[in-house]
Amino acid sequence: MTGFGPVVWAADIAAYPDAVRALMGPMAQVELEEDDFACLTGEAKAITPDSQDKLDEALADFQSTGAFLRLGLCSFKLGPGRLLPIYSGTQAALTLAQRNARVQTVARAMVSAKKKRLLYLRPHLNIPRWSEFRVFIKNRSVIGVSQYHCDQRYLQIHHYAAQIENTIQVLLQHLLPALHVDNTVVDLSIDPEQKTALLLELNPFVRRTGSGLFSWTKPGDFDGRMRFL
User: Fold this and answer.
1) Dist. CA 126–CA 35, nearest whole Å
2) Whether the predicted pLDDT of 34 surpasses 80
3) How far apart are CA 151 and CA 129, in angstroms?
């Protein structure tokens, strides 16, 4: 399938080194069946009963928060709204059966590339929109940091700007040496009061990946700074 070369597959969670995964917090994985992927690609109506049972078992570790489900390259979001927490195999099966064009594309690419059929479970967190940031890394150096949601100005970012920048720097000290790629776009969530950062995902360093408050097309626009409205 077009668009799924090595640069894209390097952003698949399955490719992350253990030291990178450790920065993502608790995470479990369930290997789905071939018939389950027929559901994800829209060729079947439901996942298998055995896989639903496996998900029930895995979800037992997420009962305090519920779980957030995703494939290695994308989540099951259908729009800008947040996904509800998943507590049971039945809920997980309904999520996987949704008709989702992005998931279908990724699932078909995984089948074509003979990738492991892995589904990832992470704690469902209520992450404030203002706390999400995107870090652009080229040749293992940071060339820019942008607030992720660029639709409005957030007073919290202005209030915590120094703490946010310092917290990102601390996480990067662990992330940069552990990366398996030289170029990537990193999504983070920051808790400036606790001075902690959570790695959400890596994205391909390509123009299809959103540039935040920077520009892929304006020469020299990535100036290494942290930008926010």
Assistant:
1) 32
2) yes
3) 10
